[in-house]
Amino acid sequence: MSVEKSLLGKDTNYPTEYQPDILFPISREQARESYNRINHIRQGKDWWHVFEISWLNAHGIPQVAIGRLTLPASSPNLIESKSLKLYFNSMNFTKFSSKEAFIATVEKDLSAAAEAEVTIDLFDANDLDIAQPEGICIDALMPERLENHPDSSLLKLDDSNEDVEVQLYSHLLRSNCPVTGQPDWGTVFIRFKGKKPCYRSLLAYIISYRQHNGFHEQCVEQMFADIWQNLSPKKLMVYATYTRRGGLDINPCRVSDITWMPRPIRLARQ
Q1: pTM for this model (two decimals)
Q2: 66 pLDDT exceeds 60?
Q3: For the segment 12-44, what is each residue's pLDDT rounded down to a tens digit?
Q4: Span 136-260: which CATH code?
Q5: Res 255 pLDDT > 70
Q6: Contact of 18 with 55, CB cutoff 8 Å
Q7: Helix H or strand E segment including 101
Q8: What would the mean pLDDT of 159-163 be, rounded to a whole number?
């Protein structure tokens, strides 16, 4: 479906009855046209943390949890975030015989929308730990050139011609929702094996997304494609942890080697 037909950015009444048909799938393929030949774009996962989950148990007592959704990057569709928020709110007054019955219903509905297997893990409200970022933070470096829209020509290799395996990260990722224009903030991790990249050029490239309009998943895939094509690593991971909006945070990860899939984390800003 076209995102213009979604409820994103529109005034909406919150449903009070279970409403699975409110879920709005968006095809991934149109955004992938410019880098469709890079097979690794479909290798990875999108992790969503859902902080506004509540349903009724068999006795009508409200239950609450934090959910972690896992969508495969190979799924034909992603799910528009406002529709997902409304879907979970529609379950607030619905009785389920058990937590397992709630999980089964969610996984069935989301898998149908994504056209691929989607799973949910539920956590107690106090059980989702805050992680510390791992790797080298590049935010204090001074880029040679700054741009306001993604520019792959910023990406350069280091003059040393050294072979490295390194994980870098930056808290300076910012992009805009392509429908509402609202800013999205995140931390991006780049794990890289190959000829050493110029760290300043990677920072300049990350900063260049500040006025770019794109969904979280699309931004990560474009980053992965540009780094893969311009710096020719042997292995690559790009993983972004975006801050929460509307009770949700979205955390896409793409890898060239499935053994490089990280564990999902939640950072302090989320």
Answers
A1: 0.94
A2: yes
A3: 788 999 999 999 999 999 889 989 889 899 999
A4: 3.30.1130.10
A5: yes
A6: no
A7: helix 99-114
A8: 97
CB 154 within 8 A of CB 204: yes
Residues 6+ apart with CB under 8 A from 201: 143, 144, 154, 155, 156
Cα–Cα distance list, 83 to 69, 190, 212 (Å): 15, 30, 23
Backbone angles phi, psi at 118, to 5 degrees: -115, 135
Which residues have CB under 8 Å from 62's CB, separation 6+? 54, 55, 56, 92
253 is catalytic: no
184 classed as catalytic? yes
- CATH assignment, 17-123: 3.30.1130.10
22: left (phi over 0), alpha (psi -120 to 50) or beta: alpha
Q: Which DSSP category does 240 fall into?
A: E
Instruction: Report the candidate in 232, 207, 226 with the shortest Cα–Cα distance to residue 149.
Output: 207
Q: State how far Cα 68 lies from the chain centre.
A: 12
Question: Residue 10 — very low, low, confident or very high, per pLDDT cuts 50/70/90?
Answer: low
Q: What is the mean pLDDT of residues 218-243?
A: 97
The one catalytic residue among 109, 177, 198, 253:
177
Ranges of CATH 3.30.1130.10 domains, the chain: 17-123, 136-260
Which of 109, 184, 226, 249 does the annotation list as catalytic? 184
